[in-house]
Structures are given as structure tokens and as C-alpha cells.
Design a protein that fits this description.
- By secondary structure, the protein is an all-alpha fold.
- Helices cover 66% and strands 0% of the residues.
- The protein has 2 helices and no strands.
- Helix 1 crosses helix 2.
- The protein is elongated.
């Protein structure tokens, strides 16, 4: 039982590390897209939605960010 717990804990740590690495890569790519969007559209500031108490829905860039991310990094057609 102890060995099983040790293996479980090791696998959990590996999974957590991989998840962290993948998430960091996604945020890095999103940062590039956000910088491009900000420059192209003349934004002064772009903030994460969870940090905003209120904003008009027209100011939410989430769907556009996802669209651009998928366009740039999504699965390639025909694969």
C-alpha cells in the first residue's frame, strides 16, 4: 500500500508539472496575440476579466482572443 501511495504521489507531481508547463506555453502564446490586438486596435490597457468588477460586455475581448488563438495555434485543417 505504501509503494502504491508513493507511485500515486509521484505521478500526481508529474501531472501537475506537465499541466503547469502546458498552461505557461498557452499563456505565452496568448500574450503575443494580446499584444498584437492591443497595438492594432489602439488599446491602452487589457486586463483579465476576473480582475474587473464591472465592464460593458462590448469591451470583453475573450471571444476574439480565442478566435485568434485557434486561428494561429489550433489544430491544422486536414489533420
Amino acid at each position: 500500500l505504501y509503494e502504491t501511495q508513493q507511485v500515486y504521489m509521484q505521478l500526481q507531481q508529474e501531472l501537475s508539472k506537465r499541466e503547469s508547463d502546458v498552461t505557461a506555453e498557452i499563456f505565452k502564446k496568448m500574450g503575443v496575440i494580446l499584444n498584437t490586438m492591443g497595438e492594432q486596435q489602439g488599446y491602452t490597457l487589457i486586463v483579465e476579466k476576473s480582475a474587473v468588477l464591472y465592464a460593458k460586455s462590448a469591451l470583453d475581448l475573450t471571444n476574439e482572443l480565442i478566435r485568434r488563438y485557434n486561428e494561429a495555434y489550433g489544430k491544422k485543417k486536414g489533420k
